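Comment thread on ticket #2218

A.B. wrote:
> Attaching the input chain for the structure job we discussed in standup.
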Amino acid sequence: MHKLLEAKLGHWRDRLISAYNESKDYPAPVQGIEREVFLHAFLTTILPPQFRIGAGVITDYKGDVSSQVDLVVELPLSLSFPVVGQNRMFMADTVGAAMEVKSTLEGTQWDDCWDKLRSIGRLSRKKLPGDGSILHLPEYTIPSFIVSYRGPKTLDTVLSHIHVKNTPLPAGIYVVESDLFVGWVDREVYEAVGAPNAMLAFIAALYRALQIRQSYTANLFDYAGIERGRRA
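C.D. wrote:
> Ran it. Output below, let me know if you need it in another format.
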């Protein structure tokens, strides 16, 4: 790996772990600052500026709504609406990726992740055709990543948790302290062990997920149940 890139990725990895260690002994609300660190000190620095990042809920044209999502990466020309505090309501059509961020990925935390992935996986990114045509899945699904500061020590352990009934395959799982990443984006498999390889694989998978969806836009008439060409 390029020495400068390796050094930069290692630096960011260490900063993430440092943020976790500084907050882990505080009450839960304070511990949540690691999500903010991940959001502001990493994603907003790495991703192109046209991708806005926030938190909140995602809704689709059918009226289905996800549970609270820790991080939402919006596509260019996206639409979202403020709700309570810093949270927003995002249109499924213009969500490039969703992330569940955990302090530790073990025990019931896995169940929490699968519940979140199911709530996101049932959303449709765009109005489904009624002609029975075959769907190109990237157009209709939201890539969901799981990021945990601590967790399994081996990829085999991560993979042993993957196939859960009625749960969509995550776009990626990144365990920062263990330096592990495994992901599935655009029919490609990403696997990496060791720093900074795992961080690079996570960035590459996320970037690919956004890249193939960057031109998607929302039709608000679908959300209002109004057909184009008709008066509201």
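A.B. wrote:
> Thanks. Noting for the ticket: The chain has one domain: 48-126+136-219.
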